[in-house]
Design goal:
The structure is a homodimer. The first copy, chain A, is about 60% helix and about 10% strand. The first copy, chain A, is an alpha+beta fold and about 120 residues long. In chain A, strand 2 (about 70-75) and strand 3 (about 85-90) form a beta hairpin. Chain A has a single domain, classed as Winged helix-like DNA-binding domain superfamily/Winged helix DNA-binding domain (Arc Repressor Mutant, subunit A, Orthogonal Bundle), CATH 1.10.10. At the A-B interface, helix 1, helix 2 and helix 6 of A face helix 1, helix 2 and helix 6 of B. The structure holds a DNA duplex (20 and 20 nucleotides). Chains A, B: Keywords: DNA-binding, Transcription, Transcription regulation. Chains A, B: GO terms for molecular function: DNA binding. Chains A, B: This is HxlR family transcriptional regulator. Chains A, B: It holds the Pfam family HxlR.
DNA sequence: CGGTATCCGCACGGATACTG
DNA sequence: CAGTATCCGTGCGGATACCG
C-alpha cells in the first residue's frame, strides 16, 4: 500500500515521504549531494565554482537545510579569512544509491519521454 | 561522475535528471503514480476522492503532464456522461520500484532527520 | 462526469549590496 | 572567504465559477 504513505497526512511535516521529496525536489539539493558524494569534502567557494550557475544565497540556504536535516556536515575553522568545509554525513551518503539509480533511469528513459511529449504536443 | 549528469546543462529541458526531478518533485505526481500503481485503473473522480485534498485543477494538470511524458495512459469513453480512465504505462510502472525504495528510505530515516532538525534548531 | 477559465496569494529563487 | 540582508519577478498551486 504505497499510497498509504502519502494519504492522511494533511501537513508536509507529518509525511515522511513528502518531507524527503521536498528536499530531493528542490533546485539544488541533489546536485550538491552528488558533488559532495564524488569529491568528499569541499569548501564553500569550491562548491560555488563547481556548480557555476547557483546564486550565493541558494548555496547557503540549501547547505543549511541539508545540514539541519543531518545530510551534510559543516566544519568551521575559526581563522581569518574563514575556512568552512562541507561533506556528506553517513545519512547523506545513504542517499547516493537512490540518486544514482534515479539518474540512470532518467538518462535511460529521457528519449522515450521526449518522443512522448512531441507526440502529445502534435495531437493538441 | 554523478555531478556530470547535472552540470553543463543550462536549461532544464537539456538535463534528463532535472527533467525527471521536476516531475518527481512536484506536489502530486508521485502520489498519483503510487495510487495508480496500486489500483491499476481509476476514473478521474475516483482519483480525486482517493487523494482527497487535491484541487481539481492540479489533478487535471498533473495527469496531463504525466500523460504527455508517457507515464500515464488516458482512455476516454465518448458517452454522456463522459467516462475517463487512467492507468500507468509500462514506462510509468518502471518508476514504481524507485518510489517504493525512496518511500522506504524516507520512513526509515525520518526519525533521524527529525532529531537532527531539533538539534540544529536548538543550537541557533 | 470530467473537465476549463480566471483570479490570486505566497514561496522559491535570482540579483545586488554589504560584512566580520 | 564565507557568508547576510534586502528587494523583487516568476510560477506553482488553491479557490471559485462555469461548460459540453
Amino acid at each position: 500500500m504505497i499510497a498509504e504513505n502519502y494519504k492522511n497526512y494533511s501537513l508536509v511535516d507529518d509525511c515522511p515521504v513528502r518531507n524527503v521529496l521536498d528536499r530531493v525536489g528542490d533546485k539544488w539539493s541533489i546536485l550538491i549531494i552528488s558533488i559532495l558524494g564524488e569529491c568528499g569534502t569541499l569548501r564553500f567557494n569550491e562548491l560555488n565554482n563547481l556548480i557555476g550557475n547557483i546564486s550565493q544565497k541558494m548555496l547557503t540556504v540549501t547547505l543549511k537545510t541539508l545540514e539541519a536535516d543531518g545530510l551534510v556536515d559543516r566544519k568551521m575553522y575559526p581563522q581569518i579569512p574563514p575556512k568552512v568545509e562541507y561533506s556528506l554525513t553517513p545519512l547523506g551518503e545513504s542517499l547516493l544509491p537512490f540518486i544514482e539509480s534515479l539518474t540512470h533511469w532518467a538518462k535511460e528513459n529521457m528519449p522515450a519521454i521526449l518522443v512522448s511529449r512531441a507526440k502529445y504536443k502534435s495531437n493538441n
